[in-house]
Amino acid sequence: MNVPASVPNWSVPDVFEPDGTEELPPELTRSSEPTSDTRTAGSADEPPRRDLTSGSGADGTGPTSSGAERQAGKGSGTGKSGGTTKGTGTAAAGIRTDVEPADLSTLLSVAVAAVGGSERDGQTAMAEAVGNAIESGEHLAVQAGTGTGKSLAYLVPAIRHAVTAHTTVVVSTATIALQRQLVDRDLPRLADALADSLGRRPTFAILKGRRNYLCLNRIHGNAPDEPDEGALFDAFAASSLEREVRRVHDWASDTETGDRDELVPGVSERAWRQVSVTGNECLGAHRCPVGSDCFAEQARNEAGRADIVVTNHALLAIDALDDRPVLPEHDMVVVDEAHDLVDRVTTAAGGELSGNAIKQAARKCGRAVEEEIADRLNEAGEGLEFVLGELEPGRVGEPSHQLSAALSGIRDAASACVNALGPEQREDVESGSARKLALAPTQEIQDTAIRLLDGFEEPEQDRRDVIWISAENNRPPSLQVAPLGVGGLLRERLFGQRTTVLTSATLALGGSFDTLASQWGLPPQREAKPATDTATAQEPPSDDSEPSWVGLDVGSPFDYPRSGILYVARHLPKPGRDGLPDAYLDELTELVTAAGGRTLGLFSSMRAARQASEQLRERLSTPVLCQGEDSTSQLVGSFAEDPATSLFGTLSLWQGVDVPGQSLQLVVMDRIPFPRPDDPLASARQQAISARGGNGFITVAGTHAALLLAQGAGRLLRSAADRGVIAILDPRLSTARYGGFLRASLPPFWNTENPEVVRGALRRLDEAAG
Ligand code: SF4
């Protein structure tokens, strides 16, 4: 790594100068040397571009390799070539058979030119690797830093594959922001740009869970309202709920998609519940009187005809978990924001039982079954509420007699309701809707109770599930269950079914992909062999049952050592349990003052964020905003508009802030973001790995912290012109043994532990910004 030896002097924004007496490193003597960004913009010393033609020769005759043919066979018969798809604006009909799809290299050049960008080495290498994965069927993990243009690098080969092999490629994201970027910006531009080279305009669609679409059956009044306890006793809540639901009814006649995200301003969760259904609550398009106009069905049909389907990790997980597919037939998946995959799949594979949810289900059953049977379920809910109220939150090893009895009672009462509701009958739409709305949650309660009771049968160390009582955010206690690991599930239901490309700016933790790969259920990465290498007698036999994968780090076009400083406040005390120590607040004050505001404060708890905001407002002349004081998007907007403003907050800001330019030149993190020691799932996973002889702390807590640190640090440099400082107040990043692993998970910033040096750099940056 080429790290400058002297501190950046940003008084001239794009020039990295020595500070004081420090020696200028040789590579900085040529101040006119182009940065990596200007090099990749097509300067004279740009390396020759690689040929990305994957196995089809350089003549651009399209994929004729056996790999492509195999995939064509798999995806044939989808009949999507004549369909129209949301967002494309043009029908996919009219394939020009006289046009051979161009090779990948040409398509990438066309795509980059169309979006007004410049070709970048990392982007080219990534597109080539994705093309190879498609050809070989070998899974791929790609770390692509900010500024690589990774969405183009996977979309172009994915589109080419979908079009040439007549199949669908699914692209999954963790956040709505990325989903929107793909569907509203990247894919429309690519579809236009690539149409001529591919012989037709590629199509795309977005697909979400059914709950995200308006249910017309409910809008038409064919299904009963959700029982809402809050509104029952609170007239104000009732009228605000009524207003929201009325607004959705008005919107229903205007919307073309019924997609909740398009309703602006949005409505509360309880209002949306009145107008939507889950997949299990849906009557089924064949029985539903408005099934032919149904928004969710339209989205599904459009997705079935599309080349690229954008979805989220939760739906991807449900598709893998459920025997009934929710995604259209596809032979390849791209998982963007793959650092979040394990958490999202864990949530989708988990379950919850609370007194409230059981009583709610009982009220729904009360409309369709005998009162006595529904009452039994209601009493079982009250019983659970009482038992959980007596127990401490945290992991449950041996259940108490009362807890076991409560669970058995819930299982039996739910089962009685399910039996009484019975299978689908010849009934009118209203009765059928009421029955479905009662059956879905009651069946889920029955299944979860059985899963918990089965789990308790096993000794704790042998369980595949972790069970705990949660009482967070002042909510009534609930019983939670989640799988100890999701690797087996992903290995069998994702990697075992189709070629998968996983990508993110952060995948190689501590410099290796293996930590995350083990959580995904993939074996350790094999050493890359030279192309000419051949198998020898000494080589161990390969395990054919293991999914084969390769890891690739394409770096970032950003010049981290020249653009950013990583400052660790080694002189501070270790963080304590009782809020932020005074020394932290003093350090924070001096840093923000030197930066002239422009600070994003990422705190490990809301309590710390509030404490810092209150204290710094008294000490500073520049404004400080705190998460929770307005909607996060409003706060981020105000922060971006005024460089003097600082924004403090917690988890959602660690990943959700994209503010290039001079409003964000300092990112402060109060402590290494380890999971809480009493986090039931993390501690159970940690223990299980240690029991097998592994390093549970690094694999679980270290991975969690490394991912968040890297995500937080990723907020600083959002464009090649950005400059700034990452300040970690927690000295353990320098002093603890695991510090090296964590630091190796961060981009190669210039490092210092000297507060004077970093404040000087911030002041120069502030002055340069003016
Ligand atoms: S098909 Fe299902 S989701 Fe669609 S309108 Fe009918 S009940 Fe609602």
Tell me briefly what this model is.
The chain has about 775 residues and is of the alpha/beta class. The chain folds into 3 domains: about 85-205 and about 305-350 and about 485-530 and about 545-555, Rossmann fold (3-Layer(aba) Sandwich), CATH 3.40.50; about 350-485; about 560-770, P-loop containing nucleotide triphosphate hydrolases (Rossmann fold, 3-Layer(aba) Sandwich). About 45% of the residues lie in helices and about 10% in strands.
Residue windows where pLDDT falls under 50 for at least 5 positions: 11-98, 528-542
Please state the average pLDDT score.
84
Binned strand content: 5-15%
CATH class call of the largest domain: Alpha Beta
- The CATH topology of the largest domain corresponds to Rossmann fold
Distance between the termini: 32 Å
Bound molecules: iron/sulfur cluster
Number of domains: 3
Computed Rg: 28 Å
The CATH architecture of the largest domain is 3-Layer(aba) Sandwich
Helix content: 40-55%
CATH superfamily of the largest domain: P-loop containing nucleotide triphosphate hydrolases
Strand order of the largest sheet: 3-4-2-5-10-1-11
Please tell me what the overall shape is. globular
Cofactor: [4Fe-4S] cluster
Region (Disordered): 1-93, 519-553
Catalytic activity: ATP + H2O = ADP + phosphate + H(+)
GO biological process, one term: nucleobase-containing compound metabolic process
